[in-house]
Each structure stands twice: as C-alpha cells, then as structure tokens.
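Colleagues,

Please find the record for the two-part complex below.
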Amino acid sequence: MPILLDLFLTFAKTGLFTFGGGYAMIAVIADNCVQRKKWISHDEMMNIAVIAESTPGPIAINAATYVGFLQAGFLGAAAATVGIVLPSFIIIYLISMFLDNFLEFAVVKSAFKGIQVAVGILILDAGVKMLKKMPKKPLPLAILTGSFAAALCINLFSVRFNSITLMLVCAAVSLAAYRMKGGERR
Amino acid sequence: MIYLELFLGFLKVGCFAFGGAYGAIPLIQEVVLGYGWLSQEELAYMIAVSESTPGPIMVNLATYVGSAQAGLPGSILATLAVILPSFSIILLITALLKTVLKNVFVQAALSGLKPCMIGIILATGASMLLTRCAKGRTLDKKAALIAFLLAGGLFVCRRFLKKNPSPIQLILISAALGVALYGF
C-alpha cells in the first residue's frame, strides 16, 4: 500500500474508534505506530508524547502530524492529520444536522456512562505510567503535587483559573530554579 | 462576520490549548461564551456529545459549534482553525527538533512542564472518576462497580496474564457494561 494511503487509513481508524480525547489517543497511536506498523521506535513515541503535551492544540493532531511528517514529509503529515480528523468530522456534522437529541437515546446514554468511567481509568493509567518514568527529584515532585492539587480544584470546584497559567507558572518556576543552579555553579 | 469570528475564536483555542481538551475546556468556555455563541447549558451539552463521540474532543467541539453557528462552511472553518496552529507548530518543531530539544532553556522549561502535565493528567483522570462515581453527594453504585471491574480486570490482565488490553477494548467493554447496568 502506498505510504500516504496507509498513513491516512491507519489514522482514520484511530480517529474512528478512540473515545475520550488526547490521552486515550496517545495510547492507541503508540499501539498502532510502534507495535503494528513499526513506523517509529518507542523512544520516538515518548518524544511525541512529550512534544504533543507541551505544544498547544489537540494532542492527537500533534501526534498524527509528527508521525506523518517523519514517514513522508509534509504530504505525510497532511494525510495523517486529515485521516484522524475526517471520521469524527463526518460523525459530528451528521449529529449536529440530524440528531439534536443524540444524548437522549437510552443506549447512547448508558453506553456513555460506562465509557466515561473507562476514560477516567485510561487517563489515570496514562498519568501513572508517566509518573513511574519521571525522575524522582524534589522540584519536579513539588511541581507535580502542586499542579495536581491546583488542577483538581479547577476541575472539581470549577475555580476560574486556567491551566495555561498553571503551565506557565510551572515553566517559570523551573527556569528560575535552573538560573539559580547555574548561578551557584559559576 | 460569523465566519471570521469562528475562525479566529478557534484559532485562539488551537494556539493556547495546552494539554488536550480537558485542560482546554476552561479556555474553550471563555471563547465560546465570550463570543456569545452558546449558553452555558448548550456548551455543556456539546462538550458531552464531543466526549461521547470518537475523535479528538477539541476538534469535535469545533466542528459542532461551527456547524451550529454557520452550517457546513462554519464547521469546516472552525475545524481547520483549531487544527492549524498545532499542525504548523509540529511541522516547525519536527524540522528543528534536535536543536530545539538540546537547548538548555527549553530543557529547563520542559523539566517543569512535564511534571506539571503529569499532575494535570492525574487530576483530570481522578476528577472524571470522582464526578462520575459520585452523583451529587451519593455514590453511584453502578459506576463504582464498572470502575472496580475495569480497574480489576486491567490489573489481572497485566499482572497475571501478561497481556495489555488495548484502550479500544477497554472502552468497548465499558460501553457494554454501561448498557448492561443502566439499561437501554
């Protein structure tokens, strides 16, 4: 199969079957691209996850663009990105046109009540995996605890504080710590 | 000019939405409510639909809001706008990757961003589970049972069967459990 078509179809499948957004998608993309297609190595996948998380935009789009570009340059990036978007675009468009009461169907409601639980577990699981691989030093652990507490408050009590600010604070703290260490060394 | 507004609004979301859709929901709220496109309840409904359909949540939401505001052209514009920043940024980064990652300041910033993201991810997962299992102040026993079965199943598969169930399998099983427990 030509690589562009292969990229498009693989990512279309990911887009069609993955519920729960970016963190769930990272797991599926790793499964497809590292284990089955062997397009990228495990290390590259870790790079992608880090880059996708630390750049803005939908995580799945970041990952698709990256893998596509590595495989077949700009056209590959475009094929993978269009692939991951197209299925859900069509589904959502049809729902918005014809199924105003989509969430009122009992089957959809019940299935989704189950899916929500699974997505929570998938995301926690992804977080725990990353936690295990993280260097256990005081500063990163402090940042992690702080941002966990802050994000939990944002999510549970809908505090008006956005996560970009939180990320910027964390980046600033670690840059400041780096400067201070650099100063000591000199 | 609704088309321009949609494009600019979702461009902003695409530019500043770090850490995936759950992290970005406050920002999306800001933009969508700020432009007065939807009421709080309509937005909550659309977020729920975007979450219960496959695909990137942010993209689903852009498609949905765009379509509700301005039909097919609106949905295409909003979708393109939300994708465009990350597409361009990743192309740029991939081209410069090795140099960028070696930069000491980038590394210093990343060393703070990574634990921060892990914290946000853990909090997102935990709060999803908590809000799902606790409806108001009472425990949703069915949700708790599903959580117990899934987490237990995952643990048994990994520890004793040395198998790692794919996320798709986990989601399909959870959907079946949901239908079985909550009825149809």
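The longest helix of chain B spans residues 57-102.

Comments are welcome before we finalize the supplementary table.
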